[in-house]
Each structure stands twice: as structure tokens, then as C-alpha cells.
Amino acid sequence: GAGVSQSPRYKVAKRGQDVALRCDPISGHVSLFWYQQALGQGPEFLTYFQNEAQLDKSGLPSDRFFAERPEGSVSTLKIQRTQQEDSAVYLCASRRTGREQYFGPGTRLTVT
Amino acid sequence: AQRVTQPEKLLSVFKGAPVELKCNYSYSGSPELFWYVQYSRQRLQLLLRHISRESIKGFTADLNKGETSFHLKKPFAQEEDSAMYYCALSNTGNQFYFGTGTSLTVIP
């Protein structure tokens, strides 16, 4: 079946613009994770959903970052008033309970 | 605080030689440790997890709680092993902490 998909794959935003990044998890996967991966770094945990409930958002770097998963399937990561330091690859992963995470291809965000 | 350290950003070995990618962690409880791999132009994927105690693609990793290490080893490297490798730690099962990665190149 289809894996985790993310859109757009590339996004260029001017500083101060708002962006929305979409993640379509594998059907039936209860858990969904967002990560931020800066150049030369490993993925950094942002937030975690179980179905529609956001159970952990401790990794969101500021209140400009907001994530939602209203129907327990597709998730959107929104970044308001983007800054240059937000430039990174944003990874989404989904998981059936207790099993391995499956990662999407990522969205590369460049803030100019 | 949880932390995962991969001291080598780049590692090159010759085909057929043994390879060891180092990973050290800091965590006060009982974490779960993982190795993830990213081949060129592919997605990040799980290679192995310590609780499975299995060998995947000839790779093994043993959790050493005394040394807080989870080094990844393979006795004979193959060219197709060239990739980026990330060590990761999970505390609750819902938060994952990744190292900065080691880029492995296997020289023919």
C-alpha cells in the first residue's frame, strides 16, 4: 500500500509568511509524529498525536508552530510568521500502536 | 535530559572490512534504542531496535547499559551499506531523540 506522503515536497517562503505542511499517514495508523531536521542534524521531535488527540507538543520550538489532526488521519503543521531559523526538512511519521514508525519523504522549507 | 551522541559524522571503510558506528546515550531510566538508516534518495527507515535483538542486513547492536552505548556493528561491510545512519532513543515510546547521524561510505 501507499506509504506516508507529505506535501508540498518543497516550499519557499518569505520571512514573515505563514506556511502549512501536510502529512497523509498510512491508513489505520493511530500515531503520528512530526520532526524538524536542520541541515547536518538528526530529526528533532516536535509533536505527537494519537488519533486526533495531541498528546505531546513539548518539542514545538515556539508558539508560532501549531499542529492539528482533526479527524485522526491527515495532519497539518502550521508555522506562522516564518523566520530564517525555521528553514529545515519537516518529517512526518506514522505508526500502528507499539510498532515501528514509517517516515514520509519530508517537506524542505526554505525561508528567505 | 535525554541525549544521543554519535561522535563520527563521517566514516569510510573498505568493502569486506568490519564496521562499527558508535552511539552513546544519556538517560536516567530504561530507554529503548534504535538504529535508523537513510539510503541515498530514500526515506528514513528503521534498521533495528534493541528489544528485538535481531540481525538485519548483517548488522547487530547490543545495548550496554554500563557504558550507555548502543554501537552498530557489521563484520563485513558491503557497498550497499553506504548510507546515513542515525541512532535514536525513546523514553515513553512516544518521544524519540535522534543523534546527528554518521555518514558511512564503503569503498569498493
Task: Give keywords.
A: 112 residues, mainly beta, 7-stranded mixed beta sheet, B: 108 residues, 6-stranded mixed beta sheet, 11 strands
Please write out the topology:
The complex is a heterodimer of chains A (112) and B (108).
Chain A: E1 5-7, E2 10-13, E3 19-24, E4 31-37, E5 44-50, E6 53-56, E7 65-68, E8 75-79, E9 88-95, E10 102-103, E11 107-111
Parallel strand pairs in A: 2-11
Antiparallel strand pairs in A: 1-3, 3-8, 4-5, 4-9, 5-6, 7-8, 9-10, 9-11
Chain B: E1 3-5, E2 10-14, E3 19-21, E4 24-26, E5 32-38, E6 45-49, E7 60-61, E8 72-74, E9 83-90, E10 96-98, E11 102-107
Parallel strand pairs in B: 2-11
Antiparallel strand pairs in B: 1-4, 3-8, 5-6, 5-9, 7-8, 9-10, 9-11
Summarize the model shown:
The complex is a heterodimer of chains A (112) and B (108). With 112 residues, chain A is mostly beta strands.
